[in-house]
Amino acid sequence: MNVNIIQKNDQLIMRTKKLLGTTINLDFPSVGATINLMLAGTKARGVTVINNCAKEPEVVDVANFLNSMGAKIEGAGTSTITITGVKKLTKTTYTLMPDRIEAGTYLILGACADGPGLTVTNVNPNHLTSLLEVLEKIGCQMEIEKDKITITKNQELKPIHIEVGPYPAFPTDLQQPLTTLLTQIDGLSSIKETIFNNRFSHISELQKMKAHIILQDNTIIVKGKTLLEPSEVTAYDLRGAASLLIACAITNGESVIDNIDVLLRGYEKPYEKLAKLGINCKII
Q1: Does the domain spanning 19-84 belong to CATH 3.30.70?
Q2: Distance CA 172, CA 265 (A)
Q3: In degrees, to the nearest 5, what angle opens at C-alpha 136 toward C-alphas 133 and 142?
Q4: pTM for the complete prediction?
Q5: Do 199 and 241 touch, CB atoms closer than 8 A?
Q6: At what angle do helices 201-208 and 175-182 cross, to 10 degrees?
Q7: 153-275 domain in CATH 3.65.10.10?
Q8: Domain limits, the chain
Q9: Whether the bond into 98 is cis, omega within 30 of 0
Q10: pLDDT tens string 190-215
Q11: How many other C-beta atoms are found inside a 10 Å radius of the C-beta of residue 158?
């Protein structure tokens, strides 16, 4: 795209007189790479084609947002996106899609809980198909409406073996919260992580709570059912924090999560929402 890039230690220095459209073949369908290339292609001269791009709903949402500002992006949601560069973008009013990972996290919490069920509103069920399939397979009952989902656990859940992958496969962002749910299921379950090779910080912390979990290559193997014990644990990343929050919520007693601020990067007003479920959280 006509950008000169120099790497100096931990810095990238990038210079260009003008961005030029080109054809880019991604080695892996990365959401971040796809979105950044769409942004660059929008103001580049000529046509940019991205092959093997990510198909996640967030990619489609960004494309729709940019198009509402005058961008010319076609193919979002497929494996090839074509962008015809424009000289300028205009102001717009745009409503963002519901956060499917936040919604999925609360549905997983609902699958851990006994009682009459948990309802998550302002969701797009079409974006959660892979998670809903997993929850159904393990034995959860769900009532799915246009923009809300009610999940109920009214029977013993069944173990499962899954593999995460690019959309529409099971999302890596829900791998860590799902791990906590698997500790509450009798038998042996597993999750194979294929996106990130370092998304396992929650395992040692769940082990502090007496979870029976081992990591074999990039596969998390969970033996349940385990009565998790209150403990002091540390959140090292966003989704790991969500995993630990669910774990602490289903223990009998008080737990402490250090570095919980990382949770706020991806969850809006989580403590207020948990309070509605009768979960007492306080920041100290």
Answers
A1: no
A2: 17
A3: 110
A4: 0.94
A5: no
A6: 30
A7: yes
A8: 19-84, 153-275
A9: no
A10: 999 999 999 999 999 999 999 999 99
A11: 12
